[in-house]
């Protein structure tokens, strides 16, 4: 089994290292930044390491059985530049991204019938190139079907629980409810525990209620308690947890604003649903990336 992982960041690095614990797999990591010392992942005080083959140019890559793309949503088109070299007749692509548009983001570059969208719930932070703090073993959800089952089987030897669902859209919107609220962490530059501060909990609740309303208009089935559930998740989880949009802002990287809050505003407009809290979150995060001298 040959598996290529595009983007060995927090999620790509974690997944590549865990997959690499099965020595029957040939793991290839496709990176744009050097990875001088392989991969080392810390989970629950233990460390696992892996030394996959590292490609820094598509010229070196060859067709594999599975490609896993773990680049950010805004890097999808660049990540896709690896695909022609990695793709053979039976190659399948798994897209490990937040948001609800995993297939859409790669549709221009890969046969959508062979794309497996993944909902990743693995809190992980990159601490240095190839170094990741994985805060929980975590889960991945993929659609029912032969590709979903084959993808899940890849992880059988890992602590990451991969399951399939017959209602992927609802699961993706439920995850977006969690991620939409994470904008508040990126805006305030405060980790998860800031949700214990009542005014922040209230703002997160409003962001999630808007997200859930738009998701339901799109056909998602979401529990009535989802806003309270999400706030509880942030308030009672790891107080120091830094979600990925917060990590992006801290590192001065672009942020997945469009995929996480922008999409709620955009689809809210389509359905005539007001989304003022998400609109404000989007504006503030976009403003934080602007050089005022360019205005
Ligand atoms: N971190 C987390 O806890 C979670 C993240 N997610 C989602 O997973 C996705 C990935 O997030 P995360 O791992 O945090 O992001 P990171 O920024 O840590 O990793 C992204 C990686 O993609 C690489 N990359 C970007 N473009 C290319 C390219 N053209 N070729 C090769 N590599 C490329 C980046 O390279 P470079 O090193 O040069 O920047 C980086 O290593 C996002 O959609 C995120 O929302 C989902 C659940 C949890
Ligand atoms: C909320 C969290 C940590 C869950 O895995 C996540 O999706 C992210 O950091 O982007």
| Helical segment count | 12
Structural class, by secondary structure, is alpha/beta
Mass-distribution shape: globular
Question: What is the overall pLDDT average?
Answer: 97
Report Rg.
19 Å
What ions, cofactors and ligands are bound? NADPH dihydro-nicotinamide-adenine-dinucleotide phosphate, ketopantoate
Beta-strand residue percentage: 15-25%
Short structural description:
One of its GO terms (cellular component) is cytoplasm. Its EC number is 1.1.1.169. This protein has 295 residues and is α/β, with parallel strands linked by helices.
Describe this structure in words.
There is one protein chain. This protein is α/β, with parallel strands linked by helices. It is built from 12 helices and 12 strands. The chain has an 8-stranded mixed β-sheet with strand order 5-2-1-6-7-8-11-12. Strands 4-3-10-9 form a 4-stranded mixed β-sheet, covered by helices on one side. α6 runs antiparallel to α8 (198-217) and α8 crosses α11 (257-271). The longest helix has 20 residues, at 198-217. The protein is globular. The mean pLDDT is 97. The structure holds NADPH dihydro-nicotinamide-adenine-dinucleotide phosphate (NDP) and ketopantoate. NADPH dihydro-nicotinamide-adenine-dinucleotide phosphate (NDP) binds at residues 6-12, 30-33, 70-73, 75, 78-79, 96-98, 120, 122-124, 126, 244, 256. GO terms for molecular function: 2-dehydropantoate 2-reductase activity. Residues 167-286 form the Ketopantoate reductase C-terminal domain. Residues 3-144 form the Ketopantoate reductase N-terminal domain. Pathway: Cofactor biosynthesis; (R)-pantothenate biosynthesis; (R)-pantoate from 3-methyl-2-oxobutanoate: step 2/2. Its EC number is 1.1.1.169.
């Amino acid at each position: 089994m040959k598996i290529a992982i595009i983007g060995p960041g927090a999620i790509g690095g974690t997944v590549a290292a865990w997959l690499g614990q099965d020595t029957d797999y040939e793991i290839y990591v496709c990176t744009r930044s050097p990875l001088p010392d392989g991969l080392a992942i810390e989970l629950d005080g233990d460390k696992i390491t892996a030394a996959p083959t590292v490609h820094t140019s598509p010229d070196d890559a060859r067709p594999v059985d599975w490609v896993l793309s773990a680049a950010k949503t805004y890097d999808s088109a660049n990540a896709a530049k690896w695909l022609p070299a990695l793709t053979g007749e039976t190659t399948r692509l798994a897209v490990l991204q937040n948001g609800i548009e995993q297939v859409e983001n790669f549709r221009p570059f890969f046969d959508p019938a062979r794309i497996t969208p993944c909902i990743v719930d693995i809190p992980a932070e990159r601490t240095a190139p190839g170094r990741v703090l994985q805060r929980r073993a975590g889960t991945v959800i993929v659609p029912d079907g032969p590709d979903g089952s084959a993808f899940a089987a890849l992880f059988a030897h890992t602590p990451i629980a991969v399951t399939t669902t017959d209602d992927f859209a609802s699961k993706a919107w439920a995850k977006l409810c969690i991620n939409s609220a994470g904008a508040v962490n990126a805006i305030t530059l405060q980790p998860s525990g800031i949700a214990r501060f009542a005014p922040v909990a209230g703002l997160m609740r409003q962001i999630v209620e808007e997200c859930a309303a738009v998701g339901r208009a799109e056909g998602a089935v979401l529990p009535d308690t989802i806003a309270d559930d999400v706030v509880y998740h942030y308030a009672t989880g790891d107080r120091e947890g830094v979600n990925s949009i917060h990590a992006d802002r801290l590192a001065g990287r672009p942020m997945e604003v469009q995929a996480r809050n922008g999409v709620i505003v955009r689809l809210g407009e389509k359905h005539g649903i007001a989304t003022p809290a998400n609109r404000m979150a989007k504006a503030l995060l976009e403003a934080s990336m602007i050089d005022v001298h360019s205005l």
